[in-house]
Design brief:
Layout (H helix, E strand, L loop, with lengths): L16 H8 L12 E6 L12 H13 L3 E6 L5 H4 L7 H19 L4 E6 L4 H12 L3 E5 L6 E3 L2 E3 L1 H12 L5 H10 L12 H12 L15 H19 L3 H4 L2 H14 L4 H12 L6 H10 L14 H6 L2 H11 L15 H5 L26 E6 L2 E8 L7 E9 L2 H9 L8 E4 L14 H9 L7 E4 L10 E7 L16 E5 L4 E4 L3 H10 L10 H9 L11
Parallel strand pairs: 1-2, 1-3, 3-4, 9-10, 10-11, 11-12
Antiparallel strand pairs: 5-6, 7-8, 8-12, 9-13, 13-14
C-alpha cells in the first residue's frame, strides 16, 4: 500500500479486539485485516426494472474485489422509480431519494471506515446521489452503471417509457386506437435496465465517463448484455488499484473535469436534470460551479448525437456506434475537452481516449462529426428575466419555433393541469404555469412528465408553452422551462402570475418574461401570503426545510 489504510484502525492495539471479533463472525482471517476494506453500495431492488438487474453486477464486483486482494463489504441504497411514481404523490420523493442515497453512502463508508467504495445504481437519482456521496467521503471510488433497457417494439417502431406517457394524450384525444394504446403500454419496457433514450439515467451515467469516475464504454451498454458483468468486475479491479495508488475523487472531480462532463451532456442532448445534479455534485466536491457555467458551455459545444427524446435513436444505438468514448474523442480533437484530467484508472482522459478512432464508422448516423452537428450550440439553455431572476432551465433542441408569447394558464398543482389538458381546455398559444412544485414548495421538485407528455400526445408540443418551478423528466421535450427560481413558495414572481397574463418564452434571447408592470407586481406581492407547508414531518418535511434553491442544485448537504 502507498499509505496507511483507513480500516487499519480495527487492528491496532488490544482495545481494538472487540472490533476484530465482529469481523471474525463474518468469516475473516487474520490476514484479511491487512487488506483494504472496499464498500459496494448496491442499489439492487425489485421495485423497478432500472435496478432489478443489478445483483449479478454486485456479485461480479464482490468476486473481483476479493481476487484483487480486497475485502468487499456490501451495503444497500434505496431507489425510487421515477417512471412508476410519475404523476403521483410518490414523485415528490424522487429528488429526495438523491439526498437519501448520498446520506446512505456517506454513513456507511465513514461509519465503517472503508478504504474505497464502488457505487452501483440504475434509476435516475442513483447516479447523482451516488456521486454526491462519493464526493463527500473522498475515499477512492468508482461508479458502475447498471445499464440501459432494450428498446420496446410495436408495429415496427422503437419504444421507450416516454412512448407510453405520450400515448395517454394521443389516446385521450382520439388520435390513437385502443389497440395501439394497449400495445405500446405492454411493449414499451421489454427488459431490465434504465429508460432507453438520452434521458436522465443515461445522461448522468454517460457524463461520469467524461468526469473520470466510470470506466470508458460502460454507460450505454444494455443491462441484459452479457458483457456488462465483466465491466463491473473490471471497475472493481480498477478501484482496488486506486486505493493502493491513493487516487481520491476530489483529485478527479475538478472544475475542468466538470466542464468535460457538461460538454458531453451538451453533445449528447442530455437531460435538464443534469443541471440540477451537477450543481449539487460540484457543491459536494467543493468545486465552484454555477448556472452561468452551463450557459458558457452551451455556447461552445455542439449537439452531435441524434438521440431521443428530441432525436431518433436510443442509447443502445449509440453504444453500437462507438458509445461515449467515440463522442469524447470527437470533442477532444475539436478542443472541447481537457484531456489532461485524471481518471480513476490513474491515466488521463486523453490517454484513455488515445485508442478510440478519430472518426466514427461512416455507416452510422447516430453520431455526427463536429463539422456537421445536429445543432451548432448546446441544447440546455439558462433563461432569466422577471419570471426567473435567479434562472431557469430549458431544453431548446428539436423546436421549430423556440419563441412563444401567450396567455398564462395558471395551476397550483400538477393534477389540475393534467385535467385541463386532457379535457381540451388548453389551446394553441397558451402558456401553462405550474407552480408551488419547487424543492421546498412541492416539496421535492416533482417531474412534470405527465403534463408535458399529454401536451405532446394531443399534438400541442410546438404550440403550447409550459413553465414550472418543478422539474422535467429527461424524456421531456417541447417549449418547456423548469427549475424556475426563486420558486413560488419563496415568493418568486411565478407566485404572482394571474390567469390571462401575457408571458414570453424566448430561447433566442434566453428570456422568461411576465408582461406585467413593476407597480402591479408590487401590489400583488404585498397581497401574497406564503401557503402552509404541504408536509411538516417525515422526510418530505425535512427536505422542505433544508433544500437549497434549484439554482443551487436543490441539495441538503
Amino acid at each position: 500500500m502507498a499509505g496507511k489504510l483507513r480500516s487499519s484502525n480495527i487492528v491496532e492495539g488490544v482495545a481494538r479486539s472487540p472490533n476484530r471479533a465482529m469481523y471474525y463472525a463474518l468469516g475473516y482471517q487474520q490476514a484479511d485485516f491487512q487488506k483494504p476494506m472496499i464498500g459496494i453500495a448496491n442499489g439492487h431492488s425489485t421495485i423497478t426494472p432500472c435496478n432489478a438487474g443489478l445483483q449479478p453486477l454486485a456479485d461480479a464486483a464482490v468476486e473481483a474485489v476479493r481476487a484483487a486482494g480486497g475485502n468487499p463489504q456490501v451495503f444497500g441504497t434505496p431507489t425510487i422509480s421515477d417512471g412508476m411514481a410519475m404523476g403521483t404523490e410518490g414523485m415528490k420523493y424522487s429528488l429526495v431519494s438523491r439526498e437519501v442515497i448520498a446520506d446512505c453512502i456517506e454513513t456507511c463508508v465513514q461509519g465503517q471506515w472503508m478504504d474505497g467504495v464502488l457505487v452501483l445504481g440504475g434509476c435516475d437519482k442513483n447516479m447523482p446521489g451516488g456521486m454526491i456521496g462519493i464526493a463527500r467521503c473522498n475515499v477512492p471510488a468508482v461508479y458502475v452503471y447498471g445499464g440501459t433497457i432494450l428498446p420496446g417494439r410495436w408495429k415496427g417502431e422503437d419504444l421507450s417509457i416516454v412512448s407510453a406517457f405520450e400515448a395517454v394524450g394521443s389516446f385521450m384525444a382520439g388520435r390513437m386506437s385502443r389497440e395501439d394504446f394497449e400495445g405500446i403500454e405492454r411493449n414499451a419496457c421489454p427488459s431490465t435496465g434504465s429508460c432507453g433514450g438520452m434521458y436522465t439515467a443515461n445522461t448522468m451515467s454517460s457524463s461520469f465517463e467524461a468526469l473520470g469516475l466510470s470506466l470508458l464504454g460502460s454507460s450505454t451498454m444494455a443491462n441484459p448484455d452479457p458483457d456488462i458483468r465483466g465491466g463491473a468486475a473490471r471497475a472493481a479491479e480498477v478501484l482496488v488499484a486506486a486505493v493502493r495508488a491513493e487516487i481520491r475523487p476530489r483529485d478527479i472531480i475538478t472544475r475542468r473535469s466538470i466542464e468535460n462532463a457538461v460538454a458531453l451532456i451538451m453533445a449528447t442532448g442530455g437531460s435538464t436534470n443534469a443541471v440540477l445534479h451537477y450543481l449539487a455534485i460540484a457543491r459536494a466536491a467543493e468545486v465552484e460551479w454555477t448556472l452561468d457555467d452551463f450557459e458558457r458551455m452551451r455556447r461552445k459545444v455542439p449537439v452531435l448525437c441524434d438521440l431521443r427524446p428530441s432525436g431518433r435513436y436510443m442509447a443502445v444505438d449509440l453504444h453500437r456506434a462507438g458509445g461515449i468514448p467515440q463522442v469524447l474523442r470527437l470533442l477532444l480533437d475539436a478542443g472541447h475537452l481537457h484531456g489532461d484530467c485524471l481518471t480513476v484508472t490513474g491515466r488521463t482522459l486523453g490517454e484513455e481516449l488515445a485508442a478510440v478512432p478519430a472518426a466514427p464508422d461512416p455507416g452510422q448516423d447516430v453520431i455526427r462529426p463536429v463539422d456537421r452537428p445536429i445543432y451548432a450550440e448546446g441544447h440546455l439553455a439558462i433563461l432569466k428575466g422577471n419570471l426567473a431572476e435567479d434562472g431557469a432551465v430549458a431544453k431548446i433542441s428539436g423546436l421549430k419555433n423556440p419563441v412563444i408569447t401567450g396567455p398564462a394558464r395558471v395551476f397550483d398543482d400538477e393534477q389540475s393541469a393534467m385535467d385541463a389538458i386532457l379535457s381540451d381546455r388548453i389551446r394553441p398559444g397558451d402558456v401553462l404555469v405550474l407552480r408551488y412544485l419547487g424543492p421546498r414548495g412541492g416539496p421535492g421538485m416533482p417531474e412534470m412528465l405527465s403534463p408535458t407528455s399529454a401536451i405532446i400526445g394531443r399534438g400541442l408540443g410546438e404550440s403550447v408553452g409550459l413553465i414550472t418551478d418543478g422539474r422535467f423528466s429527461g424524456g421531456t421535450w417541447g417549449m418547456v422551462v423548469g427549475h424556475v427560481s426563486p420558486e413560488a413558495v419563496d415568493g418568486g414572481t411565478i407566485a404572482l402570475v394571474e390567469e390571462g397574463d401575457a408571458i414570453t418564452i424566448d430561447a433566442h434571447q434566453l428570456l422568461l418574461h411576465l408582461h406585467v408592470d413593476d407597480a402591479e407586481l408590487a401590489r400583488r406581492r404585498s397581497a401574497w401570503t406564503r401557503p402552509a407547508p404541504r408536509y411538516t414531518g417525515g422526510v418530505l418535511g425535512k427536505f422542505a426545510r433544508l433544500a437549497r434553491p434549484a439554482s443551487e442544485g436543490a441539495g441538503t448537504g
